[in-house]
Amino acid sequence: MTHDAVIIGAGHNGLVTACYLARAGLKVCVVEKNDWIGGAAVSRELYPGFTYSNCSYVASLFRPEIMRDLELPKHGLQILPYEGGAVFKEDGGYLGMFRDHDANRREFARHSKRDAEAYDRYSRDVLRFCRFIRPMLLRTPPDPSTFRPRDLSELMWLGRKMGEMSERQIAETVRFWTMSISDYLDEYFESPVIKGYLAVSAIIGTALGPMSPGSAYVLLHHYMGDVDGNVGAWGYARGGMGSITRALTQSLLAAGGEVRAGTGVEQILVSGGRATGVVLSNGDVIKGRRVISNMDVKRTFLKHVPEAELPGDFVKRVKAFKIRGSSGKLNIALDSAPVFPALPEGAPNIRGDLHFTDSVEKMERAYDDWKAGQFSRDPFQDCMIPTMIDPTMTPPGKHFMSCFVQYAPPKIEGRDWTDADRDAFGQTCLDQIARYSPGFKDRVLHVEVRTPRELEAEVGLTEGNIFQGELTFDQLLFNRPVPGYAQYRSPIRDLWMCGSSTHPGGGVMGAPGRNAAAEVLREMKHPSGMSEAYAVI
Description:
This protein is α/β, with parallel strands linked by helices.
């Protein structure tokens, strides 16, 4: 049997691609190496009765257009918005954040009246940048090196978008894309803790510090999502992040697609310059008229395609593509809710993201450890307790805490991580939480510690990079992942890419998967498929 499309990897982008193609009438097979579905968007019971979102942990970036197209709420997906968050200060104080803009403004005024006044201007300016970028998420980037009518049309569309802004706004936009978040925030705010909180989205998942040029764009990338139409809002997927990929799987099965889990791909078959299928690690062969890889660009072309089948310049560029791991993760089962004395009793902030790094300078020092090949001695942690809102993940009265950690290097001083390194990393993170939550360690029932080593081995993220490649300006739009191959295609005919190494990048967004499906259907000149895939444009 020959499938119309064989998709490598049942992560969310692979499943999105599969759903669109199956709904267009193609015979689709998704191949997954793990026994479970979801890639990095998974819910797993790793301690009895507790459901962990043990990789990705919050939802916002997933495109609402895709949710509607694939009828994911019908298949059980529900996003629960959360209640802001808090930064705990070394002096025992805190900065609270809220879903409501005016409440944030009042809280800022408690730390700096000047910053409260600047907050409206900051929010307006960042929202303007978002409005410019958001329409590009579900469009294939143009190739400026060609004169194809479609690429010229897209370049003209970009020109019109730029033309809607004043000269000053254009200059500010280009400048923003290339500057550090530290420099950008300095132009608005004076309070260290306010700047520290707002800088968070610029460092999550990236091998940059807050003072690194280009980090401002990473903040924008995280601000482009929405929950219930609220731009920049975040929430929890009810039942854990695996609810997203479970809903996608159900949508795929309902459309006649197939998923094979438990055996990974050993090699992509190429014959006469065309992809013809895959060989699985157990020796089975799955034939396909086209192969679509949800793996990152390095894993796809350097590990699963014979180098002789690829142009030398392409291989060189793939090797140069920046995928640098910088993150770790702790998943913690708690016997009861932790207490943070700095917060007023009943404060809603505990239902959001909790941080213990109260300045940009402390973030930068944590990054310095990463540059020296060490995990951070005083790391930045983005801690969430989703069970404060979603009690389905634990037994009654118990809680699950997710801690996303910056910075953890892919290697420790040039050598591989050991179990002892992993345990020391985990202990460092727990010690930091306990400084702000007395008795925290006494509540801990179980801890899963994940370094870049585990993220690569289990999820297939090269070096543990959660975005499948840095989100720096040189690796965006028509440069992602390689100039000339930014339209989800590759040098091999019928071998496509749909993962986060492609435009518009990482996060549980689904846009790369949706865009890749649209390009496949466009090349097929599939009338029903084209109308289905492009319903969201």
